[in-house]
Amino acid sequence: MVFSSLRVKSFRNLKDDLIKTEAKNIFIIGNNGQGKTNFLEALYFCAYASSFRRNADNEIVKTGDYDFSANIKFSQNFIEKNNFSDILVKFENGKKQIFLNSKKINDRKELLYTAPCIVFCHDDLEFVSGSQERRRWFFDQTLSLYDPLYLDDLRSYKRIIKSRNNVLRENINTHTLLDTLDQQCAFYGLKIMEKRYMAAGFFSEIFSDLYKEVTKTAGLNVQYFPSWKNKDEKEILEYLQKQRSRDIAYGISLTGPHRDRYSYSLEGNEYTTKASTGQRRILALLLRVAQASHLVKINGKKPILLLDDVLLEIDGEKRRRFLSVLPEYDQAFFTFLPEEPFLDYKMNDTLLYYVKEGKIYEESG
Question: At 10, is the secondary structure helix, strand, or coil?
């Protein structure tokens, strides 16, 4: 167990309250629109100081209010092992403030390795059938969960590409500035590519085995296709020089890690274009399982799982197999509709909560 309690104030439709979470498995049961997902979002917001829904911070505050906060307290066992007691994230006067152990921090990167959460939700389908941007986002997140240097390099690369695009659009002293920016772009871009290559190989191995276990389909792999075909900095600089006139014409950087692609292939062919909705849904769920398993394998840190109505969309047998391949975890939060057979999944260490109109409560009697 990691989180011992969650306190929220003006967070979406949730009632201002303190919710005890002193159990390894916690079930949140309620109809749609009552606050189940908002509860998971509040946990995630504490863990990363951002929403998995990709909302702006000012969209999270309860209607009619201006400020909100979410605060998690860690269990005594977690405090003794990790020396972290609590996380508080506040949004006041249009600004976000983050406190770890009651001390303000300036970069939310400091939270990433405190209590990593893996969220399973409907929008994960974007990592399968959405844009390449969303696929890159998923694999970048996977790397960032255990490699702070990768996150630093990615941030640096994005700043350079932003500056490069500004130069291309403004077309002022273009060539002189681009010579400098291209050197920085190649330097950080190569570091990103190298780690993406390695991570794709490790991740694909885990993912392929998981997919076979749940669907009985062998041979599904994750493939990484970098925008730059060369791995030598000098050759990349020459390539960028050749592409420069095209970049200037379009006013944007047309090559680099920001244009890398990921594909899911079966027997050498792109899988997602032919897969059914159900198959894509399983694929998305197992991407998250692989992400959590990869984290455990790389640094031994067990994650907190946040599973939002994910069992609803898969049939009984695949549901059983999916639950059987969940990675080791320190704590898990599941949401269910009242008509689902959630009691079938209940264990001795499961805490049951119900939610109605934003109020989280234990059923009496």
Answer: coil
